[in-house]
Amino acid sequence: MEMRKRGRRWIYLFSVVLIAFWVALPFVCPNEAIAAPEKIRLSMGGASTGTWIYMYCALLSETWKRYIPNLDITVLATAGTTANYIPMNKGELDLAGASTSGDFYALNGKYFTKEKLTDFCSMMPATKGFNQAFTYLESPINSWKDMEGKRICLGARASPTSVIQQEICEALGIKPKFVFSTPQEATEMVKDRRVDGMIYGVGAPWSGIMDVATAVKIKLIPMTPEEQKKVNKAYPYQVPDVIPAKTYNFQTEDIPTCQGIQTINVRPGLSDDLVYRLVKVIWEHYDEVVKASPPAKWVKAADIVHMVAPIHPGAVKYYREIGIQIPDRLVWKKK
Q1: pLDDT, the chain, mean
Q2: What's the fold here for domain 40-126+262-330?
Q3: Where are the alpha helices (DSSP H) in 44-178?
C-alpha cells in the first residue's frame, strides 16, 4: 500500500515538473519556441502563356522552390516581357522575364515607355535569339548588303523582332523592302516565292525555317565581321555570334550573325543574400534546367558579361565566386 502511494507521488511530482517546463519554455527561449521559418513570397512576371519565356519562368520557379526552403513564387502571365519593365520599376514585380533589347529600350525610354526606367537589374541569361536571315539556295543574295531593295519578310509590324531587324538594317545602311506579317504567313510567302527572303530573331533551330526547308531549298545569309561590329556598336544588346554548323540539316558551315539574349531580371530591392541563393541554385542545377527546357543550352553563366542592364550585387557575388570577371560598371549601384 505504501509502495503504491510513493509511486503515485512520484508520478504526480513528475507531471508537475513537466507541465512547469512547458509553461516556462517560451519565457526561457522565446525565439526558439515561438519563431517559425518566415515564408518568402515573390512575384514573377512571365509573358503570354504558351510562350517559351513564360514556361521557362515557371520552370525556374519550381526549381527554386525545390531547393530553397520556405520560398513561394507566383508566376504571372503578362502581355509580354516588355510589359514587365514598368511594374518592376514600380516595385510591383520581384522577378521577370526580360531581354537585353528590352533592357536597352527601357534604359533609354524607347518604344514601350516614355520615360527612362532604371529600377531593375539583370540576374541571369536565359537563352539566345539569333538574327536568322535566309533566302533561296539559287538566290544572288549572299550577304546582308545584298538584301538592299529586295522584298524581305519580317515579323508583324511593330513586334519586337521586326523592330530589331529594322534597327539592324539601319545600322548596316541597307534598305530592303520590308513585308510585315505573322511568322506563319511569312514562311508561306517564302515557300510560294512571293518574297526574296526573310529575317527573324528567334532561338535556333527555328521550326519556321525547318518547315520552309521541306518545301524549297534555302540557305542562311551570313554577316561579315565588319557588319557584326557595326551592329554591336549601334546597338550594344546585339552580340556577335555564330549559328553553329548543322544547326539545320541543310547548313554545313557556321553562320556569323548577331544575337540578343533573353534574360531574367530582378528588383534591386531584393536582398543580396536571396538573389545570391537564387542564382546559385539555378547554375548548380543547370543540367536539370536544360533537360527540361533545351533552348537554355545556348547560354552559360559567363554570358552574364553581355548584359545591358546593371547586374544585381547578390548575383555579382556568385558570378565572381566562380571566376567570372564582372567590371564594376556592370554592377548595380543604389541611386
Answers
A1: 91
A2: D-Maltodextrin-Binding Protein; domain 2 (3.40.190)
A3: 52-67, 85-89, 100-108, 160-172
